[in-house]
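ESCALATION

Customer reports they have been waiting on this structure for their group meeting. Please prioritize. Original submission:
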Amino acid sequence: MNTFAHVPAARWLVSRETHPSVAKEAWARDQPAVLRTGLHFEAVRLSADLVHHIARSTDRDAVERAFARAGIDGAVIVDPPRRWYYALVPPGTAEHWADPEGACLGPDCYLGVPAAHRADPPGTHWLLTPPDGEEALCAAGDVRRLMAEGRNGAPQGRPRRHNGLSLP
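Update from on-call: job pushed to the front of the queue and completed.
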């Protein structure tokens, strides 16, 4: 029996997929499931460099605080191997999105989505709680506010590195 089918977030994420069993099988193997955006959610792709610049660190707590300052408390995926963060936003966001620092993956794009229980590295995982409904997605305005902090309020230059981690 697939235990992920009982997690509300997992159930919601695959409820409109044509083949939800494929996603559940990927999650059972502890791999991200490739889900089509535009059904339940779209995704704003943010570079790790931008997010770490805003947070002034690569430390998870600092990154979570940076998202919280913008009003974001859930629905964020981290893809460390590719150095991306994905803020899941409501369907229709891509239609009006025009920020070059964060592409919005709209209808008919695909995103590797970790199992709802994957909250830690290695690999793709949830930085913030996976959504269990549209009301738990990031508001596009909050994502814009986060990006504006990167343009306006974060320190200039790249974070320093120590033992492979960036520091303020």
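Sent to customer with the following note: Confidence is low (pLDDT under 50) at residues 1-6, 155-168.
Escalation resolved.
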